[in-house]
Write a structure and sequence with these properties.
The complex is a heterodimer of chains A (527) and B (146). Chain A has 527 residues and is mostly helical. Among the domains of chain A are: 230-395, no CATH class; 421-526, no CATH class. Chain A contains 25 helices and no strands. In chain A, helix 1 runs antiparallel to helix 2. Chain B is 84% helix and 0% strand. Chain B has six helices and no strands. Classes of the chains: A mainly alpha (527), B mainly alpha (146). The interface between A and B is medium-sized, with 17 and 21 residues.
Chain lengths: 527, 146
């Protein structure tokens, strides 16, 4: 069969399938059905794809994310599922090594989806004649149709039996069209369009191979090549350096001057960071203790964001110094030592920020942002190590971003394997004697935590009562059981939502909560 | 044939057809006030949506640069304009009704009329669109060979 025709059939079938399995449903087991179709179609259209190791690794990561969508059904697993699917398609359709470039190609696929869909539809010459024939047919039909309608109305008025039959047929037609338009509402058509957009973006390769041709020119190892002064001046970085250093940025001594500036900068920055690290070492590592009456965030949490920014800035500064010729300069030994020292000091700073976060978690328990900081620190650590590798082995920025993107993908896939809401609730409730419980926050976590909250509701209510005095309540009657009421409301809402979904929305997390509520008789009570 | 002339044709036809479909729909369901409101939508639509030409013209221009066949370029342009319509109506729905796509709301019906109007507008302007794209294709070839 013609491959162009197959593409159109597959995209259309995918859009219809998307419409059938996702309409008024949530991403759950239906995702498995749709994904199986998409992946089969992808590997059918691009049979060379499984030959690439990167595609197979991504497929593994994608399958893990898919499994997590069905098991945990968290927002994170859904986001990771989407990202890995798009990247998988990007690597299957184009020749890429970097996830950034594959992502760029997929953005082009999305932008060009309408053109890519219409492109294979070839209008043959015979169709022009056919269209003319149809237009002639319409013109011939106008007069007979008018006559038919006029006489139909006359006979209908004159003959009662005929009118009855017509009315019966009319009623049946009305019922049929009412059902038809219920099924094919505007929203449903737009949803079909969305399905077409998604399926087309994954399956149809764009004709614009901007990113793959760009990436073909990229290398991991740094190559030395000559550039004229005019070419150099065209770059933004050079203009920036020239505006600061003036004539010292050009001429024979330019590289030496740049090296000297780099050494002085790194020396001063190292000295400053050493002072910060020593203070942190003394305060956080050796003599840390929570002070009575002083909020913990004032002691440890405030400034964490600034420290993280400083580490990222440090990496940018190193990339600036080692962007070009200085990598090959014979007397760059001290500049490199300065850079290594700064990387090590930044790793110590990362550990200090980690310790800050740890102290905060010990006192206040887990929360999204605190876990986010941990993940971010992990990524920063990978970033610092790769910056070291870049300087040490003379690698390009392309290498740096490529490796870090892969590290990011691995972290993302691994992060989906944990149901974070359940983990947070479990940890905080387990350590409720040492941790200051945020009851409002716990009651706002996803439905999977409902059984856990339900078994600990008395402890939560007591904690809430201790936190807020009775006098602070507008209505004191709700004081004794507002947590219980709130949880009941959440449970009722969960049951109501579940009743609106079909088997297509089945997922382990919801089934687990439903089973618990059924066991406790709560589902029957709310029904 | 310039991008602005094509953009004006598509815009004007869509606004006019939107009002026509809205009015015809009113007759069909027996709501005569909709026939009268269609006239206001026609006049008001031309005034209110005039700035949209600043979005439509670059889209028409952009479609000429795509390395696709003419029919694919027209398809891409229609889809792009449809997205613009959906985004505009969604934003309006969010502002007025604080919700997206409410079943049987007048905004939804109006969006359907505008999309139908756009499709008919593209269909009836296809000869000009083809002529315009053929012209720009030739121009691009000449520039490329130079």
């Amino acid at each position: 069969m013609n491959k162009d025709l197959v593409k159109i059939i597959l995209v259309t079938a995918g859009a219809v399938m998307f419409n059938l399995v996702f309409w008024n449903e949530k991403l759950a087991i239906n995702t498995m059905l749709f994904d199986a179709f998409l992946l089969s179609a992808l590997f059918y259209l691009y049979p060379q794809a499984p030959k690439y190791a990167v595609v197979n690794w991504l497929l593994l990561g994608h399958v893990v994310c898919l499994a997590m969508v069905v098991i945990h059904n968290t927002d994170l697993s859904k986001i990771a599922f989407t990202i890995t699917l798009l990247l998988l398609a990007g690597f299957a359709e184009y020749k890429h090594r970097s996830a950034w470039f594959a992502g760029g190609s997929m953005i082009l696929n999305i932008v060009m989806v309408a053109a890519s869909f219409v492109e294979p539809i070839k209008i043959n010459k015979g169709q022009g004649i056919k269209r003319k024939g149809i237009s002639r047919l319409i013109r011939f039909a106008i007069l007979p149709a008018i006559l038919l309608i006029v006489f139909f109305l006359i006979y209908r008025g004159a003959n009662n039996a005929f009118s009855d039959i017509v009315n019966k047929i009319g009623f049946q037609l009305e019922v049929f069209f009412a059902h038809f338009f219920d099924f094919f509402s505007l929203q449903r058509l737009l949803f079909l369009l969305l399905g077409l957009l998604i399926t087309g973006s994954v399956l149809l390769k764009s004709k614009l191979d901007f990113f793959s041709t760009r990436e073909a020119r990229m290398q991991d190892g740094m190559q030395r090549f000559k550039r004229t002064l005019r070419q150099k001046r065209e770059g933004f970085v050079y203009s920036f350096v020239e505006s600061i250093m003036g004539k010292m940025a050009s001429g024979i001594m330019a590289l030496k001057n740049e090296n000297t500036t780099g050494i002085i900068s790194l020396l001063l920055l190292n000295a400053l960071l050493l002072a910060v690290n020593l203070i942190d070492f003394n305060f956080l590592w050796l003599h840390f203790q929570y002070e009575e009456g002083k909020p913990v965030y004032k002691m440890v949490h405030e400034g964490t964001e600034l420290l993280i920014i400083s580490i990222v800035l440090a990496m940018i500064i190193l990339l600036f110094f080692f962007k070009g010729n200085l990598n090959f300069y014979k007397r760059n030994k001290w500049l490199k030592y300065g850079a290594y020292a700064w990387i090590i000091q930044n790793i110590i700073l990362v550990s200090s920020v980690l310790l800050r976060d740890y102290y905060y978690i010990l006192k206040h328990g887990l929360a999204y942002k605190r876990i986010g900081v941990l993940v971010f620190l992990l990524m920063v650590l990978v970033g610092l190590i790769t910056v070291f590798l870049k300087i040490w082995a003379r690698k390009t920025n392309y290498f740096l971003f490529r490796v870090n993107a892969w590290a990011g993908i691995v972290v993302l896939v691994l992060a989906t394997t944990v149901h974070w809401d359940e983990f947070i609730a479990g940890y905080n409730l387990k350590h409720r004697d040492t941790v200051e419980l945020d009851v409002q926050f716990l009651l706002s976590l996803s439905d999977k935590t409902l059984p856990l909250l339900d078994t600990n509701i008395v402890a939560l209510q007591n904690r809430a009562n201790n936190e807020t005095p009775k006098a602070d309540y507008v209505d004191p009657s709700v004081y004794n059981n507002w947590c219980i009421e709130r949880l009941k409301m959440r449970e009722a809402e969960f049951v109501k939502n579940q009743r609106q979904l079909s088997w297509l929305s089945w997922n382990y997390a919801d089934a687990y909560t439903e089973k618990y509520l059924r066991k406790k008789g709560l589902i029957a009570a709310t029904h | 044939m310039t991008p602005i002339s094509i953009a004006v044709r598509l815009w004007a036809k869509t606004v006019a057809l939107n009002a026509v479909f809205w009015g015809v729909g009113g007759i069909w369901i027996g709501e005569l006030w909709r026939v009268i409101s269609a006239i206001f939508f026609m006049v008001g639509g031309f005034i209110v949506t005039l700035p949209l030409l600043m979005v439509i013209t670059p889209l028409v221009q952009l479609s000429t640069w795509l390395p696709y066949s003419i029919s694919a370029k027209i398809g891409w342009l229609s889809f792009g304009l449809m997205l613009v319509i959906i985004i505009l109506y969604s934003a309006t729905s969010l502002i007025i009704e604080e919700k997206l796509f409410i079943h049987d709301s007048p905004i939804n019906t109006m969006m359907g009329c505008t999309i139908a109007g756009l499709l008919v507008a593209v269909l009836t302007t296809r000869k000009s669109l083809m002529k315009f794209h053929t012209g720009t294709d030739n121009k691009n070839h000449v520039q490329g060979s130079l």
